[in-house]
Amino acid sequence: MIYRKDHPEETLESLEKFDLVVAVMAVGIVVRMISPALKNKWTDVPVVAVDASLRCAVPVVGGHHGANDLAYHLSEKLGTYPAITTATDAADRPSLEGTAKKFGAFVVNRDSSKDVNLAFLREDVPIIRLKGPKVVLVDDDVAVLKSREGVVVGLGARRGIEPSEVAEAVASALKSTGRSAEEIRVIATAWIKKDEIGITKAAEKLGCEVVYLGKEILNAQSPTTESRASSLGLVGVAEPAALALSERLIMPKRIYGRVTVALGE
Fold this sequence. Notes:
265 residues, Rossmann fold, Nucleotidyltransferase, domain 5, 5-stranded mixed sheet, 22% strand, globular
């Protein structure tokens, strides 16, 4: 929702009504206006301040929770400069919040975010998935992520795949199991597919993230079918990718033209 400085009371009220707020006014005015309503970064509504000339979009609160993405969106649509100030984003590094979103998960122990984000600035923080039943003891600087409900789409594809081919294959797989695109939690594939624009564009169209899994993670799974990926030293791609981020397969891999899809949940 967008509000102007000549209606300050509406801007404050909007923090209880909307998921995102764009305030067309100076950052100082926004800070003074919304400060009484601020509680913590996990629940505060993301707010972006935009100057009256539409030259700059400044995430004021909720940078990792939607404000940064909104600033980039405004930049794309209006040409405003996205003034991103969160340390990890400014340094083009991952963040805990972004990682959770990428995996379709939520942070259980939120107090770990400061230490983990500081670590992300210095190094590549390992991400480990544990399948239970298990009991895990963690220190304060270890973030625990819990997967949300939803479908994990394990994906394999030939080189040079088109976005339409990927989207159609995923749609067919979902339909065969009575699921819909709205139920997708994440798309998972092998790290060697990271430069496939067809997969990236299809994921954008479907409104979900793509997770690229390494060889060690894929080969740690036990797929139900053989795969031609064995020539690459892999036990598979689509099924292992789905298994790595889900509890079980709900559809073993199926081949749709140049795309292979497996579904897990």
